[in-house]
Amino acid sequence: MEAPLLHLALVGTPNSGKTSLFNALTGSRQKVANYPGVTVERKEGFFVTPLGRQVSVVDLPGTYSLRGRSPDEEITRDFVLGKASGETVPDLVLCVADSTNLRLTIRLLLELKRTGRPMILVLNMFDIASRRGITVDVERLAKELGVPVVTSIAVRKGGTADLLALTDEISARLAAEPQENSWRALSVSELRATQREADRIIADCVSLPARPDTWTARIDAVVLHPVGGLIVLALILFVMFQAVFAWAQPAMDLLKSGFDALGELVKATLPDGLLQSFLQDGVISGVGSVIVFLPQIILIFLFILLLEDFGYMARAAFLMDRIMGGAGLHGRAFIPLLSSFACAIPGIMATRVIDNKRDRLTTILIAPLMTCSARIPVYTLIISAFIPAKDVWGFINLQGLVMFGLYATGIISALAVSFVIKFFMIRDYAPAPFMLELPDYKLPRLKSIAIGIYTRAKMFLQRAGTTIFSMMVLIWFLASFPQPPAGSTEPAIDFSLAAMIGKALEPLLAPVGFNWQIAVALIPGMAAREVAVAALGTVYAIEGGKEAAEQIGQVLATKWSLATALSMLAWYIFAPQCASTLAVIRRETGSWGWMAVTFTYMLVLAYAASLVTYNVAVALGAG
Amino acid sequence: MTDHDDTRPHMPLGLALRGYTGVIQHLSTKDTGSALSDIELESRLIELGFVEGARVEVLHEGLVGRDPIAVRVDSITIAVRRREAMAIIVA
Predict the structure, then answer these.
(1) Predicted structure pTM score
(2) Domains in chain A and their CATH numbers?
(3) pLDDT 10s digits, B51-91
(4) Nearest CA distance, B50 vs chain A (angstrom)
(5) Chain A residues with CB inside 8 Å of B61's CB?
(6) ∠ CA A380-A382-A383, rounded to 5°
(7) Domains plus CATH for chain B?
(8) Residues 215..244 of A with a Cβ closer than 8 Å to B: which?
(9) H helices of A243-343, where?
(10) Using one digit for the tens of pLDDT, what is the confidence trace for A453-483?
């Protein structure tokens, strides 16, 4: 009979290299899901040991202790104690330590030992420690701790061989070991005592070099300089956005022509009629118009993951803490808000690093105001159709300037909203503490980053394949039925359900300069912003024939006034048009109320901004 | 370390300027104005390695009000606001 699946759990402090060890062990055999009832990411992977034992390993959220002061840390505690609902108690806990920085992990391990779980201490990044002249008496450390100790170099091929061998050895005699849990929450004096004990063990077994990592000190001298550091941060952000817009273009063009060719192929092969229209207008051009943004999503996550792996993200939070504090935001909110430029969903999920509830709530409420990548298609389309590509003051491209203005307006509004929340809604406010480890810089691990990007790209494509696809089918259906009576000369869409809905909404949207076609496009756009572009394409395509779909920008330029276009841009800065974001807000705040608040305030801002923009533009003669 | 204690006055780390080096004498979480309870603040400081006898050095300061500070605690670097650092008494 085959041995049952062996369950491992990875536990460690933040920055211990837990995730790169997880990636090294499992490669791409990973499953990402959520723990039931909470939105903590559950990462499980699978591998086979040299002796052929099937192993499942769960990468638990990083923690400094088992006190469980945030949802993430509670998961780690409950999982190790076997109290997490629907989870198997781990057969073996791998406590992962950064070998260059053992103090906090050894203390955590002493606390973990009380749970009675079989355990291995993994001294990860052992190569970096050796290079820095840190020597560890591994045998003595194992004896002092009463736990097997193994060294590993997660980033090197074969660097986990010892760990795998030890896992086999221990799993063979697991059942024989008694498992008694004597863990309870530590008092302050016990905490202090365990840290003392840890320091004593380290003093006995580890010899540290006289001077710390000089590279980290040198880089920090620039990067954490009060003024220089902010300039570096601004430069990094500038390069990041340049890359997202400029470097992604060739790949996006390639994807776009690919989908166009596919559409042509369908048109050429299939006879004219409903099926051809469905495949070409509904499926290919609809889903294609969204998948085109894959290169940008990959690039923005590449930057975020690189900076995180390098160790820069914690520095960015340090630099921004007081500056954001002026608007009532916590320094840790910087990372979630930065991620929101890619997409508000990972951004809102990243607010879990903020452990104060009110700080977290404020960040969640304003995250959707950050210009996410789903707005880019809408902005790009309207800007290229209406804003001339001329230079102002000789060197600044006007289109780029408008784009920058849209981003800036989003950021400024977010800060303003946060300020208002701080001022009116959350009065008895004592700023939550900002305490963060600034890890030594490390060269990013390409394999880890590749796996991270792969996971996110897959999520995006799944969304395009499900939500967006079904929305496109719905739109195509609404725009195509009922069919016009035989012999009618008006465009087919005038007879459709979509036109009826759009025309019913038109009086509401007329004050902001929107016509019924826009109203039709905004309905599916409520599900996901970028869908509006495809929906406009479908609406005008079915109205104006195939040529219109291919040149949707030019069609808009003839059908809309400049004032309508500007009003649409203003609308898109604020409008709460993303069902997934609203769903995530409900999940993360655990309340329909906060979701409703977000939806309402954004809708009000959107309407007001469009109203002002449209009327000012008309008054200036752009109507 | 003991002669160190005698020659230098005790002060909260929250008042130390960039370049300051010293040794942690004790933690005193009363009246720091932190949003955390005394026990919670003390626990967190210990978990980040701020224990008696640890060597500290103020490495960096933020732009606004010289806040927060980046502190070297023995072998690691921790970013902390001055308000919370008031609980760490050094000499």
Answers:
(1) 0.78
(2) 6-207 (3.40.50.300), 231-425 (no CATH), 467-619 (no CATH)
(3) 999 999 999 999 888 989 999 998 889 999 998 999 999 99
(4) 10
(5) 226
(6) 65
(7) 2-90 (2.30.30.90)
(8) 216-217, 220, 224-227, 229-230
(9) 248-269, 274-277, 285-291, 294-310, 312-325, 334-339
(10) 887 788 777 766 776 677 677 777 877 777 7
